[in-house]
Amino acid sequence: MSKFSKKNYSVVISAAVAASALISGGANAQASQNSEVIRSVSTDSLARPNAIAQNVTSVSQLSDVRPTDWAFTALQSLVERYGCIAGYPDRTFRGKQATSRYEFAAGLNACLDKINEIISAGLADKVSKQDLATLQKLQEEFAAELATLRGRVDALDAKTAKLEAQQFSTTTKLRGEAIFGLASGTDGVSSTGVSSTNTTFSYRVRLNLDTSFTGKDLLRTRLQASNTSNYNALANSNSTRLSFDGYGFTGSSANNFEINRLYYKFPVGDQFTAYIAPIGAVEDVINPLNPLESDSQGTISRFGRFNPLIRIASSGGASGLAVAGFDWNFSKSASLQVAYSASNAAAASGQGGISGGDTKIVAQLVAKPSDALTLGIGYARAYTVGNTLSSSLNADSLGGVSAPGVSGINSDTVAGSLIWDITKKFTFNTWGAYTFANSTGTTTAGTTFTSWLAALSLKDIFSEGDLAALSFGQPLLRTSVTGSAQGSASTPYQLEAFYRFRVSKNISITPGVFFVFNQGSDSANGTATVGVIRTTFSF
């Protein structure tokens, strides 16, 4: 049977004499005197998940109700006259199986409800004495089933009341994640001729408070604490940073909770989603187009997460990165994503505010010509303070110049991305980027940065939730220099491999290793080797 709403109702079911008096007299007062109050029975726990209310005009259309049962004829006549039973789209309950007595009892309640509505509307003369007698007989026959269902509903009511009384919020859900990270690495032979090795054990905890006011919007407030430092002890650049490192804003200390995200995302019509964040991230709007991007479930390195289109001018500064943007799905297979970001946006003076510090406007067109293929092309115009692109992706300065001659860098970045699901489990993805950078200030300098990455990943190798991946790429490399800038001494490369396996639904362990050749674009820095065992708890 279909799902019926739960409510209290009274129905007139009396002996034949009382029924006759009701029909002949048509008096509501007498109907009230001869009625008994019967609580309705909710069948929410019995209804099939895909059941929909679809009234039928004959019990015979519900093919799995046994016609040999005396109740079949009785219910058939009631349904045909009052249209009070709803069934599944195929007009069956369980294929060719007979409906249970409990389901039949629930259907009986539907007819009781329908007839009660007719009587309550002052149309008692529309209900025959014979139908009332039939209802009384059916009620007696299914009294035990009705009582059982009523008990189940009472228990469900108690549980529901308890949940409502103890729930955190009617609009907010709490989601959490904790990472334990064991990392060990060596930077090879540095320019000073000294090789260093460090092993660390650290954590990161995030608590997301996700609030929705309409069911389609999202207000996210994220609290974060960490003692995973920027893993730069192994090199003189950002070459060996881990995917999950960092305390938060500039000047933040270890083990302190802070607001790491605060944004509101909401739909405008059916195709447009707006995003506004006093503390946000560009990747919340601009899709990284990288199936390995997750810092808790995917890649173990910073370089393996983002291309320069996302990372340039994305440091938060002392007060956080403010972001505003939108995602416009203008067709079923294409969307346009646009975002503006401002580092240190809450600072009222100095190199802050929405236009005084690092700023960027970025747009990306994403197309999905088939289920297996996703393509993206993006452009970003950025300004960063000082001689840096603020990307944390290898050495990203102009080279050979310094402040105060260089007060900042204007850059234009073009990036292309591809994701190809070769099979349901096997995926190839790649991206490539060009960044054209020029200095601002009294010193003239310019260069072109190139960067690319390609990866293969395989899902569910031995069990559901497993993920193995191998990636190889080139971090930022200076080429085609002009003015006082200097090109890179050597071409850097990174090779990474990891395997994530699910211990349970809420726990995963990811061992992995990555190698950085010519760190900081200088062969004198040797090859860094970093091994990581990342354990992620989600709750």
How would you describe the overall organization of this protein?
The chain is of the alpha+beta class and 539 residues long. The protein has eight helices and 18 strands. A 16-stranded antiparallel beta barrel has the order 3-4-5-6-7-8-9-10-11-12-13-14-15-16-17-18. It has a two-stranded antiparallel ribbon with strand order 1-2. Strand 6 and strand 7 (272-279) form a beta hairpin. Helix 1 (16-25) packs antiparallel against helix 5, helix 3 runs parallel beside helix 4 (101-120) and helix 4 (101-120) packs across helix 6. The longest helix is centred in the N-terminal third of the chain and has 24 residues, at 143-166. The chain is elongated. 38% of the residues are buried.
In short, what is this structure?
Helix content is 17%, strand content 38%. By secondary structure, the chain is of the alpha+beta class.
SSE blueprint:
Blueprint: E1 8-11, H1 16-25, H2 28-33, E2 36-39, H3 70-82, H4 101-120, H5 129-141, H6 143-166, E3 172-186, E4 197-211, E5 218-226, E6 258-268, E7 272-279, H7 308-311, E8 321-331, E9 334-343, H8 353-356, E10 359-370, E11 373-385, E12 408-421, E13 426-440, E14 445-459, E15 467-483, E16 493-502, E17 507-517, E18 527-538
Antiparallel strand pairs: 1-2, 3-4, 3-18, 4-5, 5-6, 6-7, 7-8, 8-9, 9-10, 10-11, 11-12, 12-13, 13-14, 14-15, 15-16, 16-17, 17-18
